[in-house]
Structures are given as structure tokens and as C-alpha cells.
Amino acid sequence: MESPSVSVVMTIYNGERYLIDSLASIVEQSFQDWELLCVNDGSQDRSGEILRWFAECDPRIRILEQENAGIVQAANRGCYAANAPLICRMDCDDIAYPHRLQVQYDFMRDHPQHVAVGGAILEIDNDSDPLGLASLPTNHPNIVDNLLTRRTGLFNPASMLRKSAFDAVGGYRPEFLWVEDHDLWLRLSGEGLLHNLTDLVLCYRQHASSTCWQRASLQRELMNQLLTEAYQQRGKSVPPELLLAEKSYLKTSAGPGKWARKAAKGGHVHSTFKHLHHLLRSDSKWSYKSRMTFESLLRLIGGSPRRLIAGSPTVRIPSFPHWHAQHAQRTVPRSTPSKAA
Question: Where does the Glycosyltransferase 2-like domain lie (predicted)?
Fold first, then answer.
């Protein structure tokens, strides 16, 4: 059997709420020469049943079952099991745009000196309402500069990388759990070039159970360790201002306040007021609530009340009601996409 061109690796832990949309967004890609490896990391919900149904619908989907071992072990297992020379990372609560695999595959095919490529994202909330667009530097030096200054280099679930490079650096390191993607990009930057496309490739979900919201203090400490190591490997000392202290890493740096402000910047009226409502009902300090509310409204108005009247900008978020309907009836589609020649 001929190996596919791309292996999509998705880790799943209790992901039933968004899993159908995530899986369907891969099945309906314009680029069809792929396999999808789903690592079910000991889910206790209906994730396993959904995965088995999709695998029945499309033989390109492989399920790797295991007891709960955590995101790093699950991601490594999926990536090491990949049959393709290119690995596409995907989270079970995100949604890929239909052209994602095609544009990233084309770039990696045409740029053999690059070991990884990312893309732009649309951040969405747990209701799939838009929060705002986000993009990153496109060229290698600026991406590495981001990585060495605590900033994001590539969005992990929007990335595609060479399996040979992943194997060469030893995959994700368990000791850097919760900043494992940042660590991987730093090490891959020594194997070849990194790049970000300007194409919008993914709807990236933010919600209260996201790592950055729940584990901010631990992430801060691990990032301090990671940057210290990265600078030492480059024969330098890490600038003291990059080693954040506890007081500099507030728990309120994410969540409803941040999401309201982000949605306001993008002009998404409904999302802004929804998250301001959640913020005002939260147990955050009133000083923080007041500041976030003021900043959000100021951004939303954008200097003109007409922006509120005009409403939110139009953004397209892929949806798959037919897959939900078929799953509800437990019917297998009469035909599934065939592997491209």
C-alpha cells in the first residue's frame, strides 16, 4: 500500500463536544492524499464511539487507543506512527479550513529547506463565535526571535512539519509539558527553516479549559527553564527581563476579559458583549473588570459609534451539519472521498 503524502495527527481526551467538526474538517479537505491518526488518550466520554464511526466512514482514519498518558505522550505516539513524510498537527476542538492541507503541502514540497510551516488562524470561543484573526511573522529570523522572547513562533495545531526533522530532534519532550510546542520549534529551528503562511488555515478554539487559562503559573516556570536552556545552547545568557516573576504573570491574563478585548478589536459585537457578561459575573477583581470593560468598549467603538450600528464583520467558520445528522442516525455515507492519485 502506497504511503500517503500527509499524516494528520490528532490527540483526543474527552473531546466529544467538538470532535465531529474537527474530524469532518479533515475528511472534507480539498487535498485528499492523507491519513488521519487519532490518538484516543483514555477518553471517558463518547469520543471513542465517534472515532470508530468516522473510521468506518473513511478507511484513511486510524485510531490508536491508550490509557490516559497526557498530551505529550499521545502526540509523540501519533507522530512516530505516521507513515507520511509530512505531519500535520491538529487539536480535537479546532476546525481546519478546506484548503489547509493543500497550501501547507504545496509550500513544503516547494521549499525543501524548511522543516515546518504554520499559518494564520481565526480564534473562536466555545460556542464557535469569532474572537479575532491572528497571524505570526512569516520569515525564519523573526520567528526565532519570537521564540527567544517568550512569544509564539508557530501555532501548534496549525502547523505542518517534516517527520524526519521531528524524529531527528526526539519529538516532544515530556519535561516541558504545557510548553512542549515552543520547545519543539526552538529545537527544529536548528534543523532547518521555519515559516508561517499568511493564509487562514484554522479555527483555533479558546475556552476556559484551555491550557493557557488553567496553568499559567506552571507555564511561566517552564518557559523560564526553556529560555535559559535555549540561550545557553547559543552561548548566551538569557536577558533577565525575559524571566518573568510570579507577579508579572497574572491569572487574569486570559479568559473572558482577554476574549472580550480580542473580539472587540476584531469588531465582533456579539462576542464582545457575551464575554463582557461572563467577565462581570466572574470572581475577578473589580479593578480588572472595569479596565477590561473600558478597553473592550473603546476598541469596539473604534472612534466611531457607527461601528456598533454596522455590526460585526463577516467571517466564515466551516460547519458540518450533515456529518452531525449522519452520526445521529449512525449512518455511513454512501461514498467517501477517494485517495488522490
Answer: 7-168
Count CB-CB contacts under 10 A for residue 325. 10
| Long-range CB contacts for residues 138-141, cutoff 8 Å, separation at least 24 | 138/195, 138/196, 138/197, 138/198, 139/195, 140/189, 140/193, 140/194, 140/195
Residue 224 lies in a domain: no
230 in a domain, yes or no?
no
Instruction: State which residues form the domain around 148.
Output: 6-215
Rounded-to-integer distance, Cα 267 and Cα 259, Å: 12
DSSP letter, residue 340: P
Q: Are residues 105 and 167 in the same domain?
A: yes
Hey, what's the cell of 327? 452520526
Q: Residue 258: inside a domain, yes or no?
A: yes
Domain count, the chain: 2
Do the beta carbons of residue 20 and residue 98 sit within 8 Å? no
CB-based contacts of 32: which residues, under 8 Å, 6+ apart? 337, 338, 339, 340
The answer to whether residues 294 and 258 touch, using CB atoms and an 8 Å cutoff, is: no
pLDDT at 340 over 50: no
Cα 110 versus chain centre, distance: 24
Nearest alpha carbon to residue 148 among 186, 193, 192: 186
**Is this model's pTM higher than 0.90 or not?**
yes
**For 162-216, what is each residue's pLDDT tens digit?**
999 999 999 999 999 999 999 999 999 999 999 999 999 999 999 765 555 557 7
Q: What is the mean pLDDT of residues 316-339?
A: 82
Are 137 and 275 contained in the same domain? no
Query: 87: part of which helix (H) or strand (E)?
Result: strand 86-91
